[in-house]
Amino acid sequence: xxxxxxxxxxxxxxxxxxxxxxxxxxxxxxxxxxxxxxxxxxxxxxxxxxxxxxxxxxxxxxxxxxxxxxxxxxxxxxxxxxxxxxxxxxxxxxxxxxxxxxxxxxxxxxxxxxxxxxxxxxxxxxxxxxxxxxxxxxxxxxxxxxxxxxxxxxxxxxxxxxxxxxxxxxxxxxxxxxxxxxxxxxxxxxxxxxxxxxxxxxxxxxxxxxxxxxxxxxxxxxxxxxxxxxxxxxxxxxxxxxxxxxxxxxxxxxxxxxxxxxxxxxxxxxxxxxxxxxxxxxxxxxxxxxxxxxxxxxxxxxxxxxxxxxxxxxxxxxxxxxxxxx
Length: 326
Hints:
single chain, alpha/beta, TIM Barrel
C-alpha cells in the first residue's frame, strides 16, 4: 500500500503533517511525532516581530496580540539576534534528529524588512517555509483589496530570498478565496493551507468579562475547509493542505477525496497525545484495504467539485432541507 504524497514539492511518506504549535516547539516532541509516523512537521512559528524588535526595547502589548496571547511573553525580552539564532539552531537540531521534511513557520502581517531573513531559514536546513499570515480586518480604512495586496507582497518578498518552497496559511475571511489563492499562486506560493484558526473571544456572563474560548478545534469544523478545497483543487496548480477539525482518519480521507494533497493536525494530538498519529495512520490503512485501494492517488479528488458534486459544494442556502430532516 502506497499512501505517500507530494506537498510543496516535498515527498511525504503519508499525508499527515503536524501543524505549527507549541507541540512542535521542542525537539523531544518532534522526535515523538517522527516515531509515530508523521509525514512532515511544521515547526512552531517565528514571529515577524522577533526579527524586527529593537534589542534595547521591550515590545508593547499591541491590541493585535489579543489574538496571539502566547506570543507576548515569548517576544518580550528577545532581541532580533537572539530570536533568530535560537530558531536557526532549532531547525538544525530538528533536521539532525529526524529525516522527515521540516517546514519552518513565520507568523507575519507585513512585507517590511523581515523577508530578507527568510534565507537564513533555508541555510539552516528548512525544507520549506510556511507563512502564517494573520491580518485581522479591524481597520475601517483598509479595503478587502488592500488586505489581499499585503498577502501578495509578503509572498513576493519572501520568494526573492529563498529557493525552498513556500506555503501560505490563510483564514476563511476573504470575499473571494478562489481569487486570492490564484493571486498567491501567481506571486510564487507553492501551496496554501486552509484554514488558519484564530483565537476566539467569549463572554463570561457570570463574572461579566471577556474570556478566551478554547483554542482547540472540534471535528464539526471540518466541513469549511472541505468546501473550499473542493472548489480550489480543480482550479489552481499549487498544492493544498487541509487544516482545522481533522480529528480522525475519516477527516483525512474526506480531505483527500475533495482534492487535498496533505492535511495538518494539531488539536487532536493535544486531546489524545502524539501517539494518536499512529492510530490515525492505522485507521487510514484499514480503510484503504477495506475499499481495495492501493495508492493515495486513487482517491485524491474523487469527490471534488465536478459533475454531480458541483452543486453540493457551491450551494450556499438550504432549500427544502430542514433540521427535522437530519
